[in-house]
Design goal:
Elements: E1 4-7, H1 11-22, E2 28-30, E3 42-45, H2 47-55, H3 59-63, E4 67-68, E5 71-76, E6 81-86, H4 87-94, E7 99-102, H5 103-111, E8 119-120, E9 125-131, E10 134-139, E11 144-147, E12 149-152, H6 159-164, E13 170-183, E14 192-196, E15 201-207, E16 211-219, H7 225-229, H8 232-238, H9 246-251, E17 259-266, E18 273-274, E19 277-279, H10 282-285, H11 294-311, H12 315-344, H13 349-361, H14 364-375
Parallel strand pairs: 1-2, 1-12, 2-8, 5-14, 12-19
Antiparallel strand pairs: 3-7, 4-7, 5-6, 9-10, 10-11, 13-16, 13-17, 14-15, 15-16, 18-19
Helix pairs in contact: 1-5, 1-11, 2-11, 11-12
The structure holds flavin-adenine dinucleotide.
Residues 7-13, 30-33, 43-44, 123-125, 153-155, 159, 177, 179, 215, 281-283, 289, 292-296, 298 line the site of flavin-adenine dinucleotide.
Length: 379
């Protein structure tokens, strides 16, 4: 019997393990962390991702743990609408849309689908060796693991991708980000919002269980010690002129709930398939979060990979077909998200006013075309 191994127990790795199980392949998952549990932060899943989970037969189990939001609006710093997307109207065309979930809840739902014996934690891979038909993974703890086929899903910093494609290093987008999930202190929220001001961006996403996920992006040098040290009072100062309920949300945020990281992505790479090894998720095509599509693309990867494995005689041919189907779409998302982030992070007040006015004038047909390209997926 041939052995399949998945490196990384994130959204890509776990979803791939579930997708493979549905076609009769029991993969072993190796994860660096001692426990598979992501940071407490929210995640928006668009119609394409939900369609992926429908294909895998687990959509209901995931939807029951999150919250469907009626609208997604972009606002200016005074709270006036720039654009608004209606999830029901989009849903009629593309399927259930604008769903938000706390990351640990999504992981719990995915883990519940797998046999615990498939999962191996505390296994940080350092490098890989391909010899004949076999691939050997070398781990930080000195152990090794031999496999026939390797699915690399170990995220943007993937040491395996960097070994296979030297120079494929993450690039800094120019802005840094704080996130938190807090208990709702009684604010009447229904849809998700993102506010674009000269000081930065502030997103608010209501979650199930009366919780709120918020994020804030500010322009800064990479790995800036001042940003690393920034706490809630600093963010209150930066966003003090933003409309309600931004100041109230920050006031109710416990300091120890803040998650901080610089925003980075992976400049599009030329291949995902390397014989009996394939890259998926952020390891292959990490994107900035501006389109809310990173995890959605990882979920698409898992579904398409299983489809191709079911359709081809050899996994090598399936991996090559996967690359063919995924490369162009993944690059489209990475490039568009990068460009949107540049515009959304403008900090010159005059330019910000002009941008907001122009965005308000974008015809519905243009927004619709953009949405169609992102949400329509070739499952
Ligand atoms: C601020 C922010 C907001 C975002 N919001 C959204 C959103 O709303 N919607 C959306 O769709 N996407 C969003 N994303 C993107 C999304 O988080 C990622 O695209 C997604 O988590 C990628 O999943 P992954 O499994 O490929 O990688 P990861 O989530 O990075 O998982 C990789 C896994 O591999 C493990 N690992 C790492 N190195 C090794 C190693 N050497 N050996 C073994 N295991 C290893 C890690 O511990 C981890 O468990 C956001 C990203 C950011 C930064």
């Amino acid at each position: 019997m041939k052995h399949y191994t998945i490196l990384g127990g994130g959204i890509a790795g776990l979803t791939a393990a579930i997708a493979l199980r549905r076609i009769g392949i029991r993969a072993q998952v190796f994860e660096a962390a001692p426990v598979i549990r992501p940071v407490g932060a929210g995640l928006a899943l668009a119609a394409n991702a939900i369609k992926g989970y429908v294909k895998l037969g687990i959509a209901e189990k995931i939807i029951s743990r999150g919250r469907l939001l009626p609208t997604f609006s972009i606002l200016d710093a005074r709270g006036r609408r720039i654009t608004q997307a209606d999830a029901a109207a989009i849903g009629r065309k593309y399927g259930l849309h604008n769903f938000a979930i706390n990351r640990p809840d999504l992981h719990e739902a995915l883990l519940a689908e797998l046999d615990p014996e498939q999962l191996h934690t505390n296994k940080a891979a350092l490098r890989v060796e391909q010899s004949g038909d076999k691939t050997t993974l070398f781990f930080k703890d000195g152990s090794t693991h031999e496999t026939d086929f390797l699915i690399v899903a170990d995220g943007i910093h993937s040491p395996i991708r960097r070994q296979l494609l030297p120079g494929s290093e993450p690039r800094y987008a120019g802005y840094t980000c704080w996130r938190a999930v807090i208990d709702n202190p009684g604010l009447p929220l229904s849809g998700a919002t993102e506010t674009w001001g000269a000081e930065g961006r502030f997103g608010i996403v209501p979650l199930a269980g009366n919780k709120i996920y918020w994020f804030a992006c500010v322009n800064a040098p990479q790995n800036d010690p001042a940003m690393r040290a920034a706490g809630v009072p600093d963010l209150e100062r930066i966003f003090q002129k933003f409309h309600d309920p931004v100041p109230a949300i920050l006031r109710h945020t416990p300091g120890d709930s803040l998650v901080w990281n610089d925003i980075i992505d992976l400049k599009p790479i030329s291949c995902f398939a390397f014989g009996n090894i394939v890259l998926i998720g952020d390891a292959a095509h990490a994107t900035t979060p501006n389109l809310g599509q990173g995890a959605c693309q990882a979920i698409e990867d898992a579904v398409v990979l299983a489809d191709e494995l079911a359709a081809h005689d050899t996994p090598e041919a399936a991996f090559a077909a996967f690359e063919c189907r995924r490369l162009k779409r993944a690059h489209f998302i990475v490039n568009n998200s990068w460009q949107l982030g540049k515009v959304a992070q403008w900090s010159n007040p005059l330019l910000v006013s002009v941008r907001n006015a122009l965005f308000r004038m974008i015809p519905e047909s243009v927004n619709e075309r953009q949405l169609k390209t992102v949400l329509e997926v070739d499952f």
